[in-house]
Structures are given as C-alpha cells and as structure tokens.
Design goal:
The chain has 149 residues and is mainly alpha-helical. It is built from 6 helices and 3 strands. 67% of the residues lie in helices and 8% in strands. It has a 3-stranded antiparallel β-sheet. Helix 1 crosses helix 5, helix 2 packs across helix 5 and helix 3 crosses helix 4.
Length: 149
C-alpha cells in the first residue's frame, strides 16, 4: 500500500520504502512468533536462549545490548526463563555487581532441539529470496541499522 502523502518524489520514495520495510517486518514477526508461542516462548526469550547457546554464558547487560532490550526488560525475560528452568544466574567472579546468565541442562536440551526447527521456519520464510537477494537485503538492513544518531 503506497503512501498518500503529498511530498517530494524523494520523500514519497523514502516513506514508501519505510512502509514496505515495516509491513514486511511485522508480517514476518507475526508468522515466526506464532511458532515461538507454540513453544511458550517470546521472541526475547528465544533471543536469550539462542545467544546463550551460541555465545555461551553472558552477563545480563551484554544480553540486553545484543538483543536491543532495556535493563528492566531483559531482567524480566531472564526471570521468566529462570522460572521455566531454562537458565540460571550466578555472580560474576570478575564483577560482583554483575550476574552471569547461563543455560541449565534443561534449557540447553530444549534450545538445541528447538533451534533447528525455528531455523527451518526462518528458512521457509526467506525461501522467496535467492542467495544474492538475501545478501543484498542483509547488507541494506545492516546499513540502515548501523546509521549513527
């Protein structure tokens, strides 16, 4: 759905691009979140589990930065994962103020089983693009995402 904004050609082009990007993102997120909800996970919880699986134990601040979540939000996400038995917290030996979050055996088993299934869903969603298009989309998204404020 194009914009009905009456501006310059550049403004309309920019706004149309923005609308398409946001609609594609929302549509993709809805479909992938359905898969996550079947496993009783939020996208943030999945992000934490995936980061811990592939990067190892992290402190809460690092996890929040990686997932672009506030300190309060990441604390709540980890609280809920801890209640589910998927993660545990321990004091950071190098910084007594910080807590290290790590997968429990149950959490590791769960995410090792679930991650490939979720990756299959992501692959299915991106199957409309060829490899060159995926690389170009990744490049453009990174360019937008890395723009300095």
């Amino acid at each position: 759905m194009p914009t009905h904004f009456e501006g310059t050609k550049e403004q309309k082009n920019t706004l149309n691009t923005f609308i398409k990007l946001m609609r594609a993102t929302e549509s993709l997120n809805q479909r992938l979140c359905r898969h996550l909800s079947e496993a009783n996970l939020t996208i943030s919880q999945f992000g934490v589990l995936e980061a811990l699986l592939h990067l190892g134990p992290q402190n809460q601040k690092e996890l929040g930065q990686k997932l672009l979540k506030s300190g309060g939000n990441i604390t709540l996400v980890i609280d809920n994962l801890e209640k589910s038995g998927f993660v545990s917290r321990k004091k950071d030996q190098n910084d007594r103020r910080a807590l290290i979050v790590e997968l429990t055996a149950q959490g590791k088993s769960f995410i090792e089983d679930f991650f490939p299934k979720h990756l299959d869903k992501i692959s299915e969603e991106f199957s409309v693009l060829d490899d060159k298009e995926k690389e170009e989309l990744a490049r453009l998204c990174k360019k937008i995402g890395m723009k300095e404020e």
